[in-house]
Amino acid sequence: MENFSEQQLVNCDSNSSGCSGGTSSNAFYYLYYNSFGQVRESQLPYVGYRQICNNNGLTPVAKISSWRFAGTLDENYIAQMLLTYGPLATAINANYLQYYRGGIIDENSVDCSPLGINHAVNLVGFGEENGLKFWIVQNSWGKLWGESGFFRIARGKGTCGINKYVITAFLK
Question: What is the pLDDT of residues 114-172, one digit of tens each?
Fold first, then answer.
């Protein structure tokens, strides 16, 4: 799986607010209209604060031709999208993630409101353990966080709003 630079978006996407927030659709909009393209994370690693937008010396590896929302909260359909298109961008209520150390997050809507969406992540896979279906999700907080930079969250319940804002991009 290719790891693209989040820092490039933090630095250059003026439609978002750097590390203080943004949306996947804004990021895809920036990448679509930015003639430069997306660079690898290894070229421009995440530092966690906005820097000057400077693409000098960087080599783009991808450009976006379009993007598409899931258009549904149906997590079976979203799983099919994942199988068809590959990793999907989504957003969740990340308040619970601050305390995550491992395992499957299976919080109810009172403890992790699906209305409090505040963090972008990537759906990269799904599975089942002891009868509990889950998503495998890549976070942006580094490999020392969670399960080597990933977490698992219950699938099929809309846990923490995981199914509300699913979007994918198509590369040129």
Answer: 999 988 899 999 999 999 999 999 998 888 999 999 999 999 999 999 999 999 998 88
CB count in 10 Å sphere of residue 169: 23
Count, residues in the chain: 172
Whether 6-62 and 67-171 share one fold: the answer is yes
Structure tokens, 99 = 């305390």
Task: Output the pTM of the full model.
Answer: 0.84
Class of domain 6-62: alpha beta
CB neighbourhood size of 147 (10 A): 15
- Which fold, 67-171? Cathepsin B; Chain A (3.90.70)
| Residue whose entry in the numeric block shows the structure tokens 């999700």 | 137
